[in-house]
Amino acid sequence: GTPQKYDPTFKGPIYDRGCTDIICCVLLVVAIVGYVVVGVVAWTHGDPRKVIHPTDSRGQFCGQQGTPNEYGPAPPDRGVPGIPRGIRACSPPVSPSPTQICVSKCPDRYMTYLTAYGNAASLEYYRNFCTPEFKDSGKGPIEVLKDKECPAMLIPSTPLARRCFPAIQAKNGVIMVGNQTTYDDGQGHRRNVTELLEGAKKANVVLEARQLAMKIFEDYTVSWYWIIIGLVIAMVASLIFIVLLRFLAGIMVWVMIVMVILVLGYGIFHCYMEYAKLKGEAGSDVSLTDLGFQTDLRVYLHLRQTWLAFMIILCVLELVIVLLLIFLRKRILIAIALIKEASRAVGHVMSSLLFPLCTFFLLCLCIAYWASTAVFLSTSNEAVYKVFNESACPFSGQTCRPETFNTSNVTKLCPDAQCLFAFYGGETAYHKYLIVLQFFNVFMFFWLANFVIALGQVTLAGAFASYYWAFKKPDDMPAFPLFSAFGRALRYHTGSLAFGSLVLAIVQVIRVILEYLDHRLKAAENKFAKFLLSCLKCCFWCLEKFIKFLNRNAYIMIAIYGTNFCTSARNAFFLLMRNIIRVAVLDKVTDFLFFLGKLLIVGSVGILAFFFFTQRIKLVQDTAPSLNYYWVPILTVIVGSYLIAHGFFSVYGMCVDTLFLCFLEDLERNDGSAEKPYFMSQDLRKLLKKTNKGQPDA
């Protein structure tokens, strides 16, 4: 694809290409098909109701259609799980047993089974909170409680998130439940209601969060259109800033450099004045070594040696910066010229500013598929029932079916045996490999998410490369550079993008595993294992950053030349290493401009939102909505403005990086002759004192 002779109809090297990394492309297709199969299997076996809806101790849903509790203990419209029994099983402790049942409504009074046993009306009320097996067949209270058919006590409770929690309230600083400060635990002991506080603490947090969420929702309903206006202002400001970089980039960079030099100069002057002022004062000539370490750092400010050290450090910094400016002046000018050129390129490919929305949409699809598959996989376990008995029984611990248990041989050989819910699980091959499927789900999420990001990067790089390699800009550019680059990326380089994203996904999955191991080893005493794990986490963090950097530049080379991933990564890496100083200067200059742009846009829009929503702008004081929390729309506007500015600047950053690699390639492969003319803009050629001999300037 390298041109050997200038031709006015030549469109640059990015159009001469073939399919790359076909094996990785096939592997990605096979993996996606497998991922779809896993999703279908998970959706077939999973039941998200296990996450949303409450269940009893047998794993049966409360008040849900198609369940045993649909019309039984819990009517369809009141599927509130009943008395959660057991401190460990649920928050409010009611008895030592961890049994949970479905009831039609929460209890509204204090009562123990012993007190209700002798009263027909009380016992009838109490039956609402007993298990369905409770038949009142003449059993004594001790036997009923032993068989865990009824709770030992009832406590006034209120429904929250379809669960019953103690109705705790504070009156005059006294904690009360049902207007009482103590309760009978059903075993002849009086307990203080404060013992219920720890169990219900999380419930109160949920209740407060629910109230807060309602107020925030109300604020959004009355301010959403003003929030949208603020985000539109941020979008317009980001666009204007990018356009102005064509004219103001050089001014902003040089003003920043001059400001740094002036600040350091003032620091040197201030240190000298403090040093001179302390001359002759008692104790000011004590050396730092004689003084030693002091917890009060202000003591050091009364020593002349401290200010002398500060002055020397600032002088060294000032000298280093001045020398860097002297030797790197030309490279800074090149960086500024490339930034200006990037602004022109974005102006010719305006559709590129909206392309991050496409990437965002695809990422949302990946996240949604991963999350739904994870939920369905985690809820794929079935209710497992096992045989429980008190006497010796050969069937003890074996699985059973409640529907046929009473007619089976188990009840004949073991009369006291019961078929009870044990746990959620399964013994099929599918259930045994659920953890493997979850791991595959996580791995595919990272792979596909990285592939989507890579597709966005190579598309933008291809569009901006078509601008650079157009000899006559913008006449030689294709009609739709962004769509052309997107089509080339999918048609020729899906395999290369899959290769790069696969390498990055493997490293990210390893980091997830290391984080999981670190979480599990927090309570361990093995310091060597913790140290080794910390080192591995640090190494893989650095490796991930390096691979992201390498991939980004490899995708640019793929967009330019159409070579495979390994060749593009190698060429990009060595090209950057041969121009490492230029890379460093351009990187820092663009980082500064992007930081300044984000600070300017987010700060100005945030301040405007603050004055508007706090009704401090008199012109629109009556227009501003009345809010519960004025910080809700303000924070939304600030976060949204940052994301919008980040999206615009990510496109601009990709443009700068692409033009920079194209610029380096142009310098190395062309010499300005008729056979190998420079493709760079006229401003860059003037800056480098390069000319195209015998060819018209662009």
TrEMBL record:
<feature type="transmembrane region" description="Helical">
    <location>
        <begin position="349"/>
        <end position="371"/>
    </location>
</feature>
<keyword id="KW-1133">Transmembrane helix</keyword>
<keyword id="KW-0325">Glycoprotein</keyword>
<keyword id="KW-1000">Mitochondrion outer membrane</keyword>
<feature type="transmembrane region" description="Helical">
    <location>
        <begin position="589"/>
        <end position="613"/>
    </location>
</feature>
<comment type="similarity">
    <text>Belongs to the CTL (choline transporter-like) family.</text>
</comment>
<keyword id="KW-0813">Transport</keyword>
<dbReference type="GO" id="GO:0015297">
    <property type="term" value="F:antiporter activity"/>
</dbReference>
<keyword id="KW-0812">Transmembrane</keyword>
<dbReference type="InterPro" id="IPR007603">
    <property type="entry name" value="Choline_transptr-like"/>
</dbReference>
<feature type="transmembrane region" description="Helical">
    <location>
        <begin position="251"/>
        <end position="269"/>
    </location>
</feature>
<feature type="transmembrane region" description="Helical">
    <location>
        <begin position="307"/>
        <end position="328"/>
    </location>
</feature>
<feature type="transmembrane region" description="Helical">
    <location>
        <begin position="224"/>
        <end position="244"/>
    </location>
</feature>
<keyword id="KW-0597">Phosphoprotein</keyword>
<feature type="transmembrane region" description="Helical">
    <location>
        <begin position="492"/>
        <end position="514"/>
    </location>
</feature>
<feature type="transmembrane region" description="Helical">
    <location>
        <begin position="21"/>
        <end position="43"/>
    </location>
</feature>
<dbReference type="GO" id="GO:0005741">
    <property type="term" value="C:mitochondrial outer membrane"/>
</dbReference>
<keyword id="KW-1003">Cell membrane</keyword>
<protein>
    <recommendedName>
        <fullName>Choline transporter-like protein</fullName>
    </recommendedName>
</protein>
<dbReference type="Pfam" id="PF04515">
    <property type="entry name" value="Choline_transpo"/>
</dbReference>
<feature type="transmembrane region" description="Helical">
    <location>
        <begin position="444"/>
        <end position="471"/>
    </location>
</feature>
<comment type="function">
    <text>Choline transporter.</text>
</comment>
<keyword id="KW-0472">Membrane</keyword>
<feature type="transmembrane region" description="Helical">
    <location>
        <begin position="629"/>
        <end position="649"/>
    </location>
</feature>
<keyword id="KW-0050">Antiport</keyword>
<feature type="transmembrane region" description="Helical">
    <location>
        <begin position="554"/>
        <end position="577"/>
    </location>
</feature>
<keyword id="KW-0496">Mitochondrion</keyword>
<dbReference type="GO" id="GO:0005886">
    <property type="term" value="C:plasma membrane"/>
</dbReference>
